[in-house]
User: Fold Diaminopimelate decarboxylase from Nonomuraea deserti.
Amino acid sequence: PDTATIDASGDLRLAGVPLGAVAEEHGTPVYVFDAATFARRAASYRDGLAAHYPGEAEVHYACKAFLNVAVAQLALRHGLHLDAVSIGEAQVGRHAGVPGSRIHLHGNAKTHDELRLARRLGVGTIIADNLDELRGLAAVAREGGELGVMLRLAPDVAANTHPHIATGAAASKFGIPLERLLDAARIIAGEPKLRYEGLHCHIGSQITDLPPYRAAVRVLLAAAGTLRRRYGWTTRSISPGGGLGIAYAAGDPEPDIGGYVKTVAAEVVEGCRRAGLPLPKLICEPGRSVVGPAMVALYSVVAAKPLAAADGEADAYVHLDGGMGDNIRPAMYGARLTALPVRDARRPARRVVHLSGRYCESSDVLARDVHVPELSNGDVLAVPAAGAYTLSMASAYNHVPRPPVVLVQDGHAHLITRRETYRDLMARDAGLPDPPVAGP
Ligand code: LLP
Assistant:
């Protein structure tokens, strides 16, 4: 994060707050949210679009990367709209004071009930993922009045990222295949209460090069041209989705938000000029690149175990008090991360270890072959770039309560999500009926 510093005694601070003190006060694991990093990254998108795109533009924060009430409030304060992928996310946004008109609803399996709820929440636009959904939307619009729709296309653009998080291929589960575009248009044209707003695509996540985005914009504009010729429709909005990657460890490429925005904006301007299309509203939907670097995860070292047989360069497991329950990315995508001690942070990293999680699962190793200083039990480690797709994908596996989130800003720390409790974990259980069901 932008505000990370090492103070005179060698201790790591975020926004002036010593991370060791956060760990002491709230326990570990704990996630620390740097409001300044979030704000600066949001501003890079917002101001970059204002500088490079002559038309109207909006930044929609992709809530799936990380959401709580404070973050929805911050997003609103920094001029962002919300990309919600479920009614649950939209509810958080509404609860935080985000007007429904600033929320777009995504998702590939929205039920009719959810579509009705979206209307009740005042959600601005529904991004239709498939033809069945469009038919459902037409029915919901007939019941209750006009609905704004964007079409999510499967642009058939390959992005260089982990196959689990690539979404732009023609065979993807997401989006309307290009050859079905006119079928989709026919459904909209047949229902006067559906209002065509524009086109969307999302080619994947943790993408670090820009050419696939240019290709995606070209596909969207070609489709806009087709809809104009065949139906006389104006595509008022286009969104090439989110997906810009971040650096997780030293040596990782660190894509620049400004360069990304400039490239996408130029491609839209140039493409519209060539095709004689009016400039649409340009929507960017970043999640990871806004919130990823804004959070640091803190774990305590619980135990260490020398490796009994060779496994990479490491000579030991260092067991931490968190792991795949709060961050499943290493187990799920082979994601890499780094860690450094919060006290005496400048100690030379002389050891190579596996940082193992506490969950009952062999794949629960947060980082393999990482360089760390000599560590003792009780030492607190900080994992940077831990904001995106960690807590939002967290589980209570092994009945381990999910960690709290502490916001830091200008030397102050404020708890924005408390730690889950054992009581929370049992709150939905009813137990056996009384009198009990017949047993053996
Ligand atoms: N827009 C749409 C329609 C999306 O599907 C996504 C992410 C985004 C925007 C935001 O993408 P971002 O800027 O955060 O890359 N759990 C995976 C990532 C899944 C991304 C899903 N869609 C991971 O941990 O890498």
In short: The chain has two domains: 4-33+293-426, 67-286. The pocket of LLP is lined by residues 62, 64-65, 83, 106, 165, 202, 205-206, 241-244, 285-289, 329, 333, 388-389 (CB under 6 Å).
